[in-house]
Specification:
With 371 residues, the protein is α+β, with helices and mostly antiparallel strands. The protein has helices at 15-24, 29-38, 74-81, 87-108, 123-138, 168-173, 191-199, 258-270, and strands spanning 4-8, 44-53, 56-65, 72-73, 116-117, 143-146, 149-153, 155-158, 161-164, 179-185, 210-219, 230-238, 242-244, 247-254, 279-282, 289-295, 320-323, 327-329, 333-338, 343-349, 358-359.
């Protein structure tokens, strides 16, 4: 199960590159083809081949067309995408196509539904958009993160003539996206890719901690002289560990017996400390022995609320308080464990990638030596 997709546009991003990268990362090609077939589009074929570029192996998506329909009205494409049986796939695809239609309609002063798409009205646009939506759904991706998009310079030739890079439609679709400059010339981000990122509500902030499960490389059609022309996707599951900022209370216990030390640990845990331990130490005066007792409370203490403080105990003259590094806590649950002395209930925990939880006896029911 992959809940998060991280897109790394190494040299840029196009719809076919993103589709190929998702297939390379494990998206099932039959499910992608089935979703495209639902649209009613005819005269097409989608193949994904392995290619080697600058020593890096990746996948390339190739759309073969057997008719000459290279342009359509935006409303027609949106209606075709809406025929996909899976509503999640249809919604993502139609959202991307509507974004293109609205931008093109604004740029050309036309009704978005009636605007005539030239380069974006062919088979490959519908195949790429529906294919990416189907691939993400098949991989159970719920959140998309994208690294900064490199924008090329120069010009691009379109049906309306030579236009600056990035193309006006791409620039409009990328409003709100995080972009960077690049030394590459020409179009590095296509309108199809920009529309998909908008439809997916891509997050351009750093991704949360993930358990990485797969990586895919999508190779573009353009050949670069000094680097592979690829986009990379990484799939992973969210790390459900709880990260907390804790405060540690620490004090020295002078001239106390072992019985008192054992009591102090239990006392602090009962008062709400997350943990408590005793460390032997030697004091500065005549090498007198002492014990250092830290205890991180569940909530940061204040002057009026120091429930975890060991100060009420004898031989405590003061305490030190400092902020500890963030604590990474994995979720736990209770489970029964049999041992020599009793049946115990103790915590269990497991990584998302593991099916066998770690388990240990609870406290204080279990007192036997093996436990």
């Amino acid at each position: 199960m992959s809940n998060v997709c991280l897109i790394s546009p190494f040299t840029g991003l196009a719809g076919d590159m993103l589709l190929a990268a998702l297939v390379d990362a494990g998206a099932p090609l039959p499910a992608i083809r089935a979703a495209i077939t639902d649209t009613g589009l005819t005269g097409w074929d989608l193949t994904v081949t392995r290619v080697l570029t600058h020593g890096l192996s990746g996948s390339r998506a190739v759309v073969s067309v057997s008719d000459d329909a290279t342009s359509r009205k935006a409303g027609e494409l949106i209606a075709m995408a809406g025929r996909v049986r899976d509503r999640a796939v249809a919604d993502t695809a139609t959202k991307a196509l509507r974004a293109i239609a609205e931008v093109e309609g604004h740029l050309h002063g036309e009704d978005p539904a009636e605007v005539h798409l030239h380069e974006l009205g062919g088979h490959d646009t519908l195949v790429d958009i529906v294919g990416v939506a189907a691939a993400l759904h098949a991989l159970d991706v719920r959140t998309v993160h994208c690294e900064p998009l490199p924008l090329g310079t120069g010009s691009v030739r379109t049906a309306h003539g030579v236009l600056p890079c990035p193309a006006p439609a791409t620039s409009a679709l990328l409003e709100g996206a995080l972009v960077i400059g690049t030394t590459l010339k020409g179009e590095t981000v296509t309108p199809t890719a920009a529309a998909l990122l908008r439809a997916l509500s891509a997050d351009y902030s750093p991704p949360p901690p993930l358990w990485l499960s797969a990586t895919g490389y999508g190779v573009g059609t353009r050949t670069l002289p000094d680097r592979p022309n690829v986009a990379v996707v990484r799939l992973g599951a969210l790390d459900t560990a709880d990260v907390r900022d804790l405060v540690v209370l620490e004090t020295n216990l002078d001239d106390v017996t072992g019985e008192v030390l054992g009591y102090v640990v239990g006392h602090l845990l009962d008062r709400g400390a997350l943990d408590s331990w005793i460390t032997p130490a030697v004091m500065k005066k005549a090498g007198r022995r002492t014990s250092c007792t830290p205890s991180p409370p569940r909530t940061p203490p204040t002057r009026s609320n120091r429930r975890c403080s060991p100060r009420p105990e004898p031989s405590v003259c003061g305490e030190r308080t400092y902020v500890a590094p963030p604590r990474l806590a994995r979720p736990t649950s209770s489970a029964s464990t049999d041992c020599r002395c009793a049946a115990n209930t103790g915590p269990t925990t497991a990584k998302p990638s593991s099916t066998t939880p770690s388990r240990w006896p609870g406290r204080p029911a279990c007192r036997c030596v093996p436990c």
